[in-house]
Amino acid sequence: MSEPRRPEVAVSAQPVIRPYEPADEDAAVAVWAQAGRRAHPFIPGEGEGERERKMREIYLVHADNWVVESHGRVVALLGLLDGEIGGLFVDPDAQGEGLGRLLVEHAATLHGALTLEVYEKNTPARRFYARMGFEEESRRADEEYDEVMLKLARPAPEDRPHG
After folding, report:
1. Would you say residue 72 lies in a domain?
2. Residue 58 has what DSSP assignment?
3. Per residue in 92-117, pLDDT tens?
């Protein structure tokens, strides 16, 4: 007698946004570390050490986190603090596939108007957020790293001019 067949679990090639789960921790941290090192080469120790500890023990625990899963693996991470995007990271191998756009639109669906902070030196992210309708609201010094942070804001979708 043969053993009964187990149903196969479908692994979607289409990106799926879902809530972060504790089992995603290592994959989410890997995405954050790889994307963070690429986006913030001017931050010493980005993606490791004390910054990784904070990611695991504070941000992944206290923020409203969402992941994008594609082909059965986590490829992007969004951390929300109400209407503030605390972090948006896409695996460098998956950048340019529209995953960041999906996550920003997901955040807007949940919260309407959005804000975030981005390093002035992170030019690719600044261009992305400008394309997504964010505008600079203010600047401040990040005293820990002596870098300029830009506060960006985007109105709720129904408040945005249609054109």
Report:
1. yes
2. I
3. 999 999 999 999 999 999 999 999 99
The Cβ-side half-sphere exposure at 51, using a 13 Å CA radius, reads 16
Quote the tokens at residue 69. 């899963």
Domain region containing 86: 16-159
Cα 60 from Cα 32, distance rounded (Å): 11
Task: Tell me, yes or no, whether 3 lies in a domain.
Answer: no
Number of domains in the chain: 1
CATH code for the domain in which residue 86 is found = 3.40.630.30
Could you tell me if 137 and 151 are in contact, meaning their C-beta atoms sit under 8 angstroms apart?
A: yes
Close Cβ partners of 54 (under 8 Å, ≥ 6 residues apart): none
Residue 159 is classified by DSSP as G
Domain membership of residue 8 (yes or no) is no
Q: Which of 154, 134, 142, 130 is nearest to 40 (CA)?
A: 142
Helix (H, G, I), strand (E, B) or coil at 68: strand
Q: Say how many C-beta atoms besides its own lie within 10 A of residue 78's C-beta.
A: 26
Give me the average pLDDT of each 10-residue run along the chain (163 residues).
47 86 97 95 90 93 96 96 96 94 96 97 96 97 93 83 46
